[in-house]
Design goal:
There is one protein chain. The chain is built from six helices and no strands. By secondary structure, the chain is mainly α. It has one domain. It is elongated.
Length: about 190
């Protein structure tokens, strides 16, 4: 039985949706870990997202092979397809993790980005904000500490990762199907 293209497209859409949620779930899991260096936290985040992606992609690709081959005939090809898909996800999640403009282009749609200020800049900004508040009764943005900046950056990475991972999920099913949906020859 040939590959059902409608099923493939449906699974790509399903994987897209699932991969929107994977970074959110991973950020909640990694967020409760005790304090660690930001780079370590990001690496654990990418690893958790990749593991979740593998499990998700394996399920989608197993269903695709099951439909195409009247059952799962080659677990190895499903595994290879899921590994390829998970590696695509890892690469796409690394984009917002390590390329700040690509992180901010997505995260700034949902969050205000506050710059990390030196103590002198923070004191100057505080005076300016207090003066502006006294005059216009407005609330201004305050300086944030390095720890708050690390937390902000991690949240920006997580939101950017959801966007990038969603596309990785869809591409992953498509590319993974090249190996997973091939039915082995029977005698």
């Amino acid at each position: 039985m040939p590959l059902d293209i409608n099923l493939l497209y449906g699974e790509m859409a399903g994987s897209w949706i699932a991969h929107l949620a994977i970074p959110v779930a991973a950020s909640m899991l990694v967020g409760v870990l005790p304090y660690m260096a930001p780079s370590t936290k990001v690496m654990i985040f990418i690893g958790v997202c990749t593991a979740f992606s593998f499990v998700c992609q394996y399920g989608f690709l197993a269903m695709l092979q099951s439909s195409s081959c009247q059952g799962i005939k080659d677990y190895g090809s499903v595994f290879r397809g899921a590994v390829m898909a998970a590696l695509i996800t890892a690469g796409m999640i690394a984009i917002p993790a390590y390329v700040e403009p690509m992180r901010l282009v997505v995260s700034m749609m949902f969050f205000d980005h506050k710059a990390l200020l030196t103590p002198e800049q923070a004191a100057a900004q505080k005076q300016i904000v207090e003066a502006a508040s006294a005059i216009a009764h407005q609330r201004g943005g305050a300086a944030i500490t390095p720890d708050e900046y690390d937390d902000q950056t991690f949240q920006e990475i997580a939101s950017g990762a959801s966007y990038w991972a969603a596309f990785a999920g869809a591409y992953g099913v498509g590319i993974g199907s090249l190996t997973a949906a091939v039915c082995p020859a029977t005698a």
